[in-house]
Specification:
Blueprint: H1 3-23, H2 35-40, E1 46-47, H3 49-52, E2 54-61, H4 63-85, H5 97-106, E3 107-112, E4 116-121, H6 132-137, E5 141-147, E6 150-155, H7 160-181, E7 188-192, E8 195-201, H8 205-216, E9 221-225, E10 243-252, E11 257-267, H9 271-284, E12 292-298, E13 314-321, E14 326-327, E15 331-339, E16 345-352, H10 354-366, E17 372-376, E18 379-382, E19 394-398, H11 405-421, E20 428-436, H12 438-467, H13 469-491, E21 495-496, H14 498-527, H15 532-564, H16 568-601
């Protein structure tokens, strides 16, 4: 035997041993694997939702919000650029709120609908500052109309699909990171058009409830300044029943002296919804200025502030400047800590990245003696007064309310998880929820396994009987193919579903088909009177093109299914593609080594292939 044969045999043995080690932990229930193997090999084949049962969640991604976010980003950039062009802002410097206020005295940039931006100049001569070069600098904007001092821009229609697709993919990745953070390795997160589907096999009801809560959090963290000098709330009239106006004294304002500030309060079980609905009504009616926002937060001091009774649930409003100074995108790390001054109450400690630390330092430095609202998902978590400039890039988020310690701790842990995974780029809305029992899947699997085993045994017996020695080699190759295919799925931590089982059965048939072609070619050469050694060489050479062509055409079909399919279709396609690779390896490479051992090593003169 030449040295090349021994090298090929060694390669097969190494691959076979590696495949078994990789697959072994997945078979631990039937064949216990040593602890060292389970520790070294992390990959497992996980039963899918249709086999094991579990939870299936479907969410609609509000892609229109992504377009609005892009529009608002461009509006903010336009305001700053035009402020520089009219000589009120300096290039390269972050403008203060007062400087932006002066710009708004010369021009206004307002949003219209979901896509349009209305730029209105007080002096028509300034309208020329918004020229074609500035508009085309943002390749996703176009000018709709220009009339005197008014210019209308809008997000270009050809960019809408791109913006929406990006939002869906970012949302899917964020949800995937959150699910991974929960340690749910078996869960699958897929995107289909504007829908995101989350499938979690197994688990209990408590786990399902926590998954739903974690996924639905937008986790948009913003640090904004409270406008305590404004009289907006004090000027509101005809407040709905159950909502009252109150005044507090805060050390705020540009004068850094005590200032009175008005806010709204609602009390009782439905207080949050009642106050939020009223704020939404004000927003829709256009009463809230574009450069401000009115948000709600839980009333922290539950004694006599706002007329609340001790222990009574109450919510209040905060009137904020509309632009977020620092956001959660600047977060580098977050973790749960305990405040010894508050009886060990848990809070979320935040470390900013270098850019975020600089922005946070600048924000606090410019607003000493003002209140800074820490806003999570449009709810004010707390609004402490900035006593001094805060450097070092550290901050903490306290979770309010008089709730049990464990409840606050769990909320803090969940907040850390979603902050680390990142905020959702746009809101998502639950559209469907299904609890799938495992009984149907188990029956299907049991029937499928029985049918597959019976068919495989019949095929193996037929091959051994019909092709004799060649059939035995083919049987060994089919079993190797199955081992390699399952090992590949375990390595990639694939989820085994009913369509996946169908793909495995199909691959078994394709593996047999490859060996049938090889055996038939060898038999033709033997019938032509050629020696066993020559028959093997020419049989493999002539069978290769047929085997390769048939496998490649199936591979193309698998790639198309993977590209355009979703959910179970993709699972079927992945198993099919992996099976084609292993089938070619066993049907051509491994079986050739076995035949060469017979005709070259054992020097068999009469090869029995039926």
């Amino acid at each position: 035997m030449e040295k090349g044969w021994y090298f090929r045999l060694l390669l097969i043995l190494v691959v076979t041993a590696s495949a078994w080690i990789i697959l072994w932990p997945s078979l631990n229930t039937w064949i216990p694997a040593p602890a060292a193997v389970r520790k070294f090999v992390s990959g497992r084949i996980s039963p899918g939702l249709d086999i094991r049962g579990g939870l299936r969640l479907s969410y609609d991604v509000e892609v229109d919000a992504a377009v609005r976010d892009r529009r608002e980003l461009r509006a903010d950039e336009l305001l700053r650029e035009l402020g520089q062009r009219v000589g009120l802002l300096k290039k390269g410097e972050s403008p203060s709120r007062e400087e932006l206020g002066k710009v708004r005295e010369r021009l206004t940039v307002t949003n219209e609908g979901d896509r349009r931006i209305h730029v209105a100049f007080k002096d028509e001569k300034d309208a020329g500052k918004l020229d074609h070069d500035l508009v085309t600098r943002y390749n996703d904007l176009r000018e709709v109309s220009r009339a005197g001092s008014d210019v209308i821009l809008e997000v270009r229609s050809e960019f809408l699909e791109q913006i929406q697709d990006t939002a869906v993919q970012q949302a899917r990745e964020t949800i995937q990171n959150r699910v991974d953070g929960l340690g749910l390795r078996e869960a699958a997160v897929t995107a289909q058009n504007t829908d995101i589907i989350v499938e979690v096999p197994g688990a209990d009801q408590a786990t399902f409830d926590r998954i739903r809560e974690i996924i639905s959090k937008t986790a948009r963290l913003e640090f904004e300044i409270v406008d305590d000098d404004a009289s907006f709330v004090s000027e509101l009239s005809e407040l709905p029943a159950g909502i009252t106006r109150h005044t507090e004294i805060v050390s705020a304002g540009t004068s850094k002296s005590q200032t009175s500030s008005s806010y709204l309060v609602a009390r009782g079980k439905e207080s949050r919804k009642q106050l939020t609905d009223y704020v939404e009504t004000l927003k829709k009616s256009g009463k809230i200025p574009e450069d401000h926002k009115l948000l709600v937060g839980e009333l922290e001091r539950m004694s006599e502030e706002g007329g609340a009774k001790q222990g009574e649930l109450a919510w209040r409003t905060y009137y904020l400047f509309g632009r977020a100074e620092v956001t959660g995108q600047a977060i580098e790390d977050a973790f749960v800590a305990n405040d010894p001054q508050a009886g060990g109450k848990p809070y979320v400690a935040i470390n900013f990245n270098s850019e975020g630390a600089d922005s946070f330092k600048e924000l606090t430095g410019r607003n000493v003696k003002r209140r800074m609202a820490i806003v999570l998902d449009d709810v004010v978590a707390s609004a402490p007064v900035i006593q001094t400039e805060i450097g070092g890039g550290h901050c903490q988020v306290t979770l309010g309310g008089f709730r049990p310690y464990n409840e606050v701790l769990n909320e803090a842990k969940d907040l850390v998880l979603v902050l680390k995974a990142g905020a959702l780029p746009v809101p998502i809305r639950p559209s469907n929820e299904q609890m799938i029992g495992p009984s149907l899947g188990a029956d299907g699997v049991a029937q499928g396994v029985r049918g597959a085993l019976v068919s495989i045994i019949i095929v193996l017996l037929f091959m051994a009987f019909y092709y004799e020695v060649g059939g035995v080699i083919a049987d060994v190759m089919v079993m190797l193919h199955l081992l390699f295919l399952l090992a590949a799925q375990a390595f990639f931590e694939a989820t085994l579903t009913l369509p996946g089982l169908v793909a495995i059965a199909l691959n078994m048939g394709m593996a047999v088909d490859a060996n049938v072609l090889v055996n038939e070619r060898i038999r033709e050469e033997l019938r032509a009177g050629k020696s066993a050694r020559v028959a093997v060489e020419q049989g493999f050479a002539r069978a290769f093109s047929s085997v390769f062509d048939s496998q490649i055409t199936t591979l193309v079909a698998g790639v198309v299914l993977f590209q355009y399919g979703t959910g179970p279709i993709k699972g079927f396609a992945v198993t099919l593609i992996l099976g084609i690779c292993t089938s070619l390896f066993t049907g051509i490479f491994c079986s050739r080594v076995a035949f060469d051992w017979l005709v070259r090593g054992l020097r068999v003169q009469r090869l029995r292939v039926g």
